[in-house]
Design brief:
It is a single chain. With about 425 residues, the chain is α/β, with parallel strands linked by helices. It contains 15 helices and 15 strands. Strand 12 and strand 13 form a beta hairpin.
Length: about 425
């Protein structure tokens, strides 16, 4: 039972996210203090007044007069004095989950994206920690201690490998006009290896079948996010009507999960998302309900409203482009809360923590460094029995584009599941 003198959808949303489907508990709410005091069982008091025999969490004024620009205080560790949690981590969790700080994105990057350096997590040096998972875990341990009981955890650590398919091929099957222009560019830039690679039998981006095999060998089911749009400045996949495209997409859709990778300009366009989703569904004969925005273009609340209106149920875009870590402060999936409408929505958000392009192009890490940073993050997620999700691309193994050593990084990350990976980075790259 949870008592709060102020009870609204925001407070209920946070507690439900912290507890529901993660721990074997059912929440009963009350604003009646007398009734609360007379009840038996596990009890949480979320108010400014301390009570005996319950788990106390000091409530600040964040929810009393909610202001989207108000930033609550938060730290990694909860300050507990005589069993009472002094930090209003409920307010902090809502701030992070709702993405309130992104509604006024004053300094987006060149693609209109929220930058990691703009986040409060980054400013506090906490964006590499699954804060909300840590807080939930700490709350449960305090409940167990306060009430001398044991609470069952319903979820175990999970690992999900997702693959963005922006390009099927680097050179193969491309129209002559595109081949000629690319060849001229490579010649001007003296990219001799790329020129040689154009005449090899194997295309350097044609790795999807191998990736499927790697997952099958490890009893993993990958999830592919497919770009399914007409060619544009940032959308350079094969046209969906191409027989080559359709055959390849049908082949990889067998034995994998599938999602749409909405095109660059679709992030504010419901009809475009729906059109591309329907096209992919017809090609694969599958119902497409999962999505990840191309280039991770995501703004609030427009992008998520467009996804919902297009019939999307799951979004996998919640992560930073230029850094690894936890954009919403959590590893586990959660339902999006629409601040303007003050309501929980039907869209479930699946955060990711690691992306290949982030490791190499933004952070400029060597393969050994990329693996070390990735494993450190995965260990932190394991410790809270969270949900680890990575993004990779079939184009991220091409050595002529600087990806030497990253195939080993990827396979090692796939292997890093409890009991599966004991090899050190030094041995791996020896």
């Amino acid at each position: 039972m949870i008592y709060s003198p102020i009870l609204n959808s925001k407070i209920q949303y946070v507690f439900n996210t912290l507890i529901d489907s993660v721990f074997d508990l059912e929440i009963v709410w009350t604003t009646d203090l007398s009734y609360f005091k007379n009840q038996e069982g596990l009890k949480i008091n979320y108010s400014q007044n301390k009570m005996d025999g319950v788990q106390n969490i000091v409530a600040g004024s964040y929810f009393e007069a909610f202001d989207i620009n108000n930033i609550p205080n938060f730290e990694k560790d909860l300050d507990v004095i005589d069993g009472q949690i002094q930090n209003d981590f409920i307010a902090a969790a809502f701030f992070l989950l709702s993405r309130a700080e992104e509604y006024s994105n004053a300094s987006p990057d060149q693609h209109g994206r929220f930058k990691s350096k703009s986040s409060e997590l980054f400013k506090k040096g906490l964006h590499h920690w699954p804060l909300i998972d840590i807080w939930a875990d700490r709350l449960i341990k305090l409940l167990e201690k306060t009430f001398n009981t044991s609470i069952k955890v319903l979820k175990e650590y999970t690992f999900k490998s997702t693959i963005d398919v922006d390009h099927l091929y680097a050179y193969k099957y491309k129209p002559l006009t595109i081949k000629a222009g690319a060849l001229l560019r490579d010649s001007i830039q003296f990219k001799l290896n790329r020129i040689k690679d154009r005449y090899k039998k194997e295309d350097p981006y044609d790795r999807l079948d191998e990736m499927l095999t790697w997952h099958k060998q490890r009893d993993l089911i990958p999830q592919f996010f497919i770009l399914c749009s007409k060619r544009g400045p940032f959308d350079k996949s094969f046209p969906p009507e191409s027989s080559i495209y359709q055959q390849k997409i049908k082949a990889i859709s067998e034995g994998s999960e599938l999602g749409i990778h909405p095109s660059y300009a679709s992030y504010h366009n419901t009809e475009k998302i729906k059109e591309e989703t329907d096209t992919l569904g017809k090609i694969t004969d599958k119902t497409i309900q999962a999505s990840r925005q191309h280039f991770l273009r995501l703004t609030f609340p427009e992008s998520y409203r467009c996804l919902i209106d297009a019939g999307i149920k799951e979004d996998y875009s919640m992560g930073f482009a230029e850094d690894i870590g936890f954009r919403a402060g959590i590893s586990r999936s959660f339902y999006w809360y629409d601040l303007d409408r003050d309501a929980v929505t039907s869209l479930r958000v699946y955060p990711f923590q690691i992306m290949d392009v982030t490791l190499k192009k933004y952070l400029r890490l060597k393969p050994e460094e990329a693996l070390t940073e990735s494993l450190n993050l995965l260990k932190r997620i394991q410790e809270v029995k969270g949900e680890a999700t990575i993004i990779w691309h079939n184009s991220s193994f091409y050595e002529s584009e600087g990806w030497e050593g990253y195939e080993a990084v990827y396979k090692s990350i796939l292997d890093y599941r409890i009991g599966h990976f004991e090899c050190t980075e030094e041995l791996l790259f020896a």
